[in-house]
Amino acid sequence: MKTSSGRAKGRPPRLSKEDIVAAARDIIADEGAEQLTMRRLAREIGCTAMALYHHFQSKDDLLLHVLEDVAARLPHPVLPADPRERLVLVCGLMRQAFVENPWVVPLVARGEMVAPSAVWMTEEIIAALVGCGLSVEQAFDVNQTIWYYTAGQVAAAVRQAGEAGQKPAGPHYLETIVAEQGEQRSAETMPYLSRLAGVWRDLEAGYSYQRGLHHILDGALDPDSHPAR
Amino acid sequence: MKTSSGRAKGRPPRLSKEDIVAAARDIIADEGAEQLTMRRLAREIGCTAMALYHHFQSKDDLLLHVLEDVAARLPHPVLPADPRERLVLVCGLMRQAFVENPWVVPLVARGEMVAPSAVWMTEEIIAALVGCGLSVEQAFDVNQTIWYYTAGQVAAAVRQAGEAGQKPAGPHYLETIVAEQGEQRSAETMPYLSRLAGVWRDLEAGYSYQRGLHHILDGALDPDSHPAR
DNA sequence: ACCTGAACACCGTTCAAGT
DNA sequence: ACCTGAACACCGTTCAAGT
């Protein structure tokens, strides 16, 4: 019942916010966020770029709506009772959501944009941390730590996935550095890195987000690790 | 003795790579990385934008040289003998370097650019982790975890610092959400976040990178946390 | 070899005008 | 109220030409 007062005035809209958001979402999904420009979006919809500004204040405003649209479609499964299991599962869902929507990572990491439909994850994480025996303040702290870790890990994972798409994965920069300054000298100045250079990519591929998360939880849930503040 | 063979041919260069890099570094330091454009840089130096392309393949190539220049100027103090103390100190230096040069965060986090002059930090971290009793493979893993955490934390810290500069720090988005859907309903659907919304910024300001790092180390250096792989 | 001038193919956004 | 057309103020980069 949104027809506020009397009948609608003026020209009836040909474009709806929902349609524009949906079209933007499709372009990002199909061709990546870099391909989403106001002109490109307008071409897809069949209007001029300027018509979009009648529905959204700016491109950022539009992106905020796309973000909320994506967040509203995220899975919200039933969670296990054990708080630590809940924690690992929700963090995994959060990470998965970012991996599948890599364009939101820089926006959300910079803290400029947030989707109301996704805050339940943070609520669950803090609640589960409290369930593990932390105070609310401690839970806030650990939630931050987890978030920073997750954001950084996803950024790196997205990068690797992007690289895998195009090039035949040339030599890692560490190999280049070792090659440039010579193996002899490299082994002296950076013994570990010169050994690891060749297998760096393999080790990277074997990295487990969940294992790292468990390390953080092991350290953060230890009662001794939280002095009175 | 780089004058390879015979005397120099052609027109003597008016611009040097070093001068261009220095000018670019100054612009970024004074006005931020967003202000560095090829045209702006050329104006500063007193040439056309196109002249720059005779010294660098692209803007990215130029940025790579600026990055290396910055990395080469980072402090490299004597480190304590105790491996855990070394770890915390080197990570602090790394974080500090990023906080003081926020423009490198997205570049390095995406893994596209790396400065040879800064790899000693990674070498020290891995060596210290081995000194704490880990295998090289385990040390690699934990180094990744630390790196992800650091990258994410710095990105957030830089954001906050940027916000503090301009606006009088409007309400946090959590407060906005709570206000929009009502305190009553918010307290039901997200009890912890509705309680934390008002003090979120204060808690954020009280977050300690070092404390989070210690949590990670506590968990990761525990012998039980590394099953055979 | 080193640098210039003009141009290409883009951006997000403003603003006056049309229906 | 809704949309168009032209324009503004930018980008990074290419390419032929000058010295």
From TrEMBL, chains A, B:
Alphabetized UniProt keyword annotations: DNA-binding, Transcription, Transcription regulation
Pfam families: TetR_C_1, TetR_N
Top-level taxon: Bacteria
GO molecular function terms attached to this record: DNA-binding transcription factor activity; transcription cis-regulatory region binding
GO terms, biological process: negative regulation of DNA-templated transcription
HTH tetR-type domain: residues covered: 14-74
Family matches, as InterPro entries: Homeodomain-like_sf, HTH-type_TetR-like_transc_reg, HTH_TetR, Repressor_TetR_C, Tet_transcr_reg_TetR-rel_C_sf
DNA-binding region location: 37-56
Organism: Longimycelium tulufanense
Alphabetical list of PANTHER family matching this protein: HTH-TYPE TRANSCRIPTIONAL REGULATOR RUTR, TRANSCRIPTIONAL REGULATORY PROTEIN
Protein's name in the database: TetR family transcriptional regulator
